[in-house]
Write a structure and sequence with these properties.
The complex is a heterodimer of chains A (about 270) and B (about 80). With about 270 residues, chain A is an alpha/beta fold. Chain A has ten helices and five strands, in the order H-H-E-H-E-H-H-H-H-H-E-H-E-E-H. The termini of chain A are far apart. The chains are: A alpha/beta (about 270), B mainly alpha (about 80). Chains A and B meet through helix 8 and helix 10 of A and helix 3 and helix 4 of B.
Amino acid sequence: MADAAPGPGLAVEAMLTPRGRSPGLGEAAWSRRALAVQLAVSRLAAPVWVPLVVLSMRFGFRWRIRGAASTRALYASLLSERRPLLVVANHLTMVDSAVIGWGLGSAAGHVLRPRGLPWNVPLQRRVESSWLWRMLAYVMKCVPVPRGGDRQEVAQVLERLAHLLRSGETVLMFPESGRSRTGRVDTEATADGVGRLIKEVEGCRVLCVYVRGDAQRTWSNLPSAGDTFTIATRLVEPRTGLRGLRASRDLATQVVRHLVEMEREHLEGRAS
Amino acid sequence: MTEEKILEKVVDILKPYAKDASALASVSLETNILSGLKVNSARLVDVVLAFEDAFGIEVADDDADKVQTVGDAVRLIQGKLA
């Protein structure tokens, strides 16, 4: 992020989709400068919004995370290694990214080390539904992605995420293309974006995260108030001998298989 | 292989993925695969992988990104076969 050129003009531009960028700047250069500005703004605002989000989860919804200390210690050690780290998780509720962020680091930890707060990839349609959503998504390190749209636009988003990973930032992605309608990790809904990112970023490690509240039976908008979450992690470095699209598909499938195994272990552990 | 033959094979491959089967009856080179045939965007990769198998070609990510219409697919395949 050394090429940062913070300025209010770029900050406003960065809240727009690629279609709204300034003429004269190449797509890659524009994206990198816009991301650098967004990162600077997010870091400045982190002492305000990070504690607010965590307090609302802890005391507003009375959520708890089981064994958060060991998860946070593992994550901190991974961050200290300074290698690209992609966080990939199952997806059951609209606040999974916030819960996972909280599970990976305390409010104080994220304020002091904002690099550990993962970038998120929310749906562009939702983000663009109001200026409030746009502002929140901007400050909370989000790169909106169009769903069901032009693959070239999705490729631009993936290129931004690859740049962030190479720059030492962490990125959180849900490979199921949305909340799992079956309540289980949906192998049929796997999109290839995760695999493509792993392929593009040399030495990319993947931290698979399986998160589920004790009361979470299937997908929903929000977890139940007072729920306690288990967050299981597994560090993997997927490899493939395939090329092109098949490589992306193979890498994404490997990651989802890990999530399926983690889900099985979680559910078996809960049943016993 | 002629453009007609490629188009015929491409439409055959698209059949199981098209949610709007009626659109297949009037398919043309201009038909958009996602919005016209209602193919799920996540399944577009499966479609392109099926092109690879059917025509014995290899498609790079960047080339696959450019496939929006049936004509894009036909031209991509023609280019790879040439």
